[in-house]
Amino acid sequence: MSPSNSPAISVRELRKGYPDKVLGTKWAVDGVTFEIAYGEIFAILGPNGAGKTTTVEILEGYRRRDSGEVKVLDMDPQALSSDELHWRNRIGIVLQSASDAGDLSVRETISHFAHYYTNPKSPEEVIDSVGLREKADAKIRTLSGGQRRRLDVALGIIGSPEILFLDEPTTGFDPEARRDFWELIRSLKALGTTIVLTTHYLDEAEALADRVAVIADGKIIEIATPSTLGKRNEAKARVAWLEDGSTQIIETEHPTQEVAKLAERFNGEVPELSVTRPSLEDIYLQMIGHS
Amino acid sequence: MKPSIIKVGLLRGRLEVLQFLRQRESVVFTLAFPVILLFIFGSVFKNTIAPGVSFSQYFVAGMIASGLVNTGFQQLAIFIPMERDMGTLKRLRGIPMSPISYFIGKAIVVLFAMIVQVALLIVIGRFFFGLHFPINTSLWLRFLLLLIVGSIASTILGIAFSSIPKSGRGASALVSPVVIVLQFISGVFFVFSDLPKWMQQFAALFPLKWLTQGMRSVFLPQSFAAKEPAHSWELGKMWLILLLWIIGGTIWAVRSFRWGDEK
Questions:
Q1: Does residue B62 sit within a domain?
Q2: Chain B: residue nearest A152 by CA?
Q3: Which pLDDT value is given to residue A47?
Q4: B87/A108 touch (CB, cutoff 8 Å), yes or no
Q5: Res B154: pLDDT
Q6: Domain-ending residue, one of A188, A211, A231
Q7: pLDDT digits over B192-211, tens only?
Q8: Chain B within 8 Å of A141 (Cβ-Cβ)?
Q9: Angstrom distance (rounded) from CA A185 to CA A195
Q10: What pLDDT shows up at residue A4?
Q11: Among A208, A231, A254, which residue terminates a domain?
Q12: Alpha carbon A139 to chain centroid distance?
């Protein structure tokens, strides 16, 4: 379906600034470069105000950039002209917040939006896949925050997009709703959808993303897989156990050896043994702290 | 199959009408309020302003003209900024929909509300306030043409004005006074020829004055033309000024329409 030699999205030296009383220009996005392959889930992770939404809204064609190159599905989102509808037919957008159409039902809204696309999914299937079956006939204004968000996702995927943009999709979800949502995203990936996800939840990036870009103050600090971010996989492991009434801790590059030695010494079960590596959160806080 | 601009526009129109009917604010504000006003003014002022013409007849004609302003200008200039605030417009900008389809949808909901509004006012005017239906086919045709041209002007100016309110909340506080002031100076609440000359001249710059005059030419006896300030219905001038507002409004709307707080 897609040319494997060109990426789904490529961004080079992207910059976008806003007038600022003190600085003259505040660079919301300051020289960002990355590529996203077809079929990949790419997470953009960063604190509030880091430039995540600005970056994504430039990719979605909502905002104009000041400089740099952007290609989404081989097209420049700010120079589409007559190709615009064709291009928009191939992407799905889930915006950060919307509170519209409160007087329509879930089914009415999803069915209506199916009409905009040349190759829509079945509205009933989409209602099921976002878990709104029980709310299908409910007015949108009666939905909870999480349900409302799932409707937004439904509207983002109804057109069978090749690329789906999700801007902080699970804000306000309870833990169970988030797990369900992650399953939905994985099932979209299984169908070959490229997914761009901004989030400030680390566990979300870790659970979903093939690669994570950490962004702070408009700059990319690192792009890596969740397990290698911040050289997390090479970081020393911490082995802890209980001995002589207190917790003993050592940091080591060879935790297996240490555990084997302990097992030998204790001749069996080691009391309260644990082996941990720094969590993504530890790494992340370190990274944005340094920026 | 590629969805056509017209087809999507019609689908949007259906959705807009559905939303209109389900929004208590819009039904009350746009449809019921003028009817209530009609009952109050029509019941209080029963005096005769010319042989065979009561103030209530005069007032109903003016309210029908205002109906065009309520359902087009007022409705759109208030609801479009609200849609901008709620993210509706941003969402629509992100899907494969031509902006033209959006405006077709708006035109349909205006047309729908206008027909309901005008029908209500005419029926109530006829049965409670002695309104006479147009007496011949050519007056009916003029009435139809006034509804069409007036609605077009009102819709376009509503879309153009929607760029002025900074927020959805502020929209109604900004738009309603404009409409009410125009109603006072354009021959709706007061007999136009009783107003001071300078006020008449100011009102003549805006479309509502011409719409009320046109509606009077349809619903009042032809002899009443002599009571107008110009001693005639000034129909040629009326069409010209409405046309100028349509052209000017289109240019204004195209230049000013905003989908969001885009930078």
A1: yes
A2: B91
A3: 84
A4: no
A5: 94
A6: A231
A7: 888 899 998 998 899 999 99
A8: no
A9: 8
A10: 56
A11: A231
A12: 29
**Confidence grade of residue A291 (pLDDT, cut at 50, 70, 90):** very low
pLDDT band at A290 (very low <50, low <70, confident <90, very high): low
Domain membership flag for residue A2: no
- Partner B contacted by A63 (CB < 8 A): yes
Q: How far is CA A147 from CA A203, B48, B144, in A?
A: 21, 60, 46
Question: In terms of domains, do A210 and A245 share one?
Answer: no
At B243, the pLDDT band (50, 70, 90 cuts) reads very high
Q: A144 by DSSP, 3-state: which?
A: coil
Distance (Å) from the C-alpha of residue A276 to the closest C-alpha of chain B? 44
- Is the residue at A4 inside a domain? no
| Closest in B86, B98, B262 to A100, CB measured | B86
The residue of B95, B102, B263 whose CB has the most chain A CBs within 10 angstroms, and thus the best one to mutate to test that interface, is: B95
What is the per-residue pLDDT across A253-281, written as a single tens digit (0 to 9) for each? 888 998 999 999 888 888 889 998 877 77
Instruction: Say which DSSP state A270 is in.
Output: P
Q: Tokens in use for A176?
A: 């169970």
- For residues A61 and A147, membership in a common domain is answered with yes
Q: Is A200 left (phi over 0), alpha (psi -120 to 50) or beta?
A: alpha
CA dist A101 and B137 (Å) reads 42
Chain A contact set for B91 (CB, 8 A) = 93, 95, 98, 100, 155
Of chain B, the percentage scoring pLDDT greater than 70 comes to 98
- The reply to whether A74 falls in a domain is yes
- Domain holding B213, by residue range, is 5-45+53-256
- Reported ipTM: the value is 0.83
On whether any CB of chain A is under 8 Å from the CB of B96, the answer is yes
Give residue A274's domain range: 233-290
What average pLDDT does the segment B42-69 reach? Answer: 86
Nearest CA-CA distance, residue B165 and chain A, Å: 18
Residues A85, B86: C-beta atoms closer than 8 Å: no
Residues ≥6 apart with Cβ < 8 Å to A159: A89, A92, A113, A114, A116, A117, A119, A120, A121, B95, B96
Domains contained in chain B, number: 1
Does A140 share its domain with A254?
A: no
Q: Do B262 and A115 touch (CB under 8 A)?
A: no
In a domain, A64, yes or no: yes
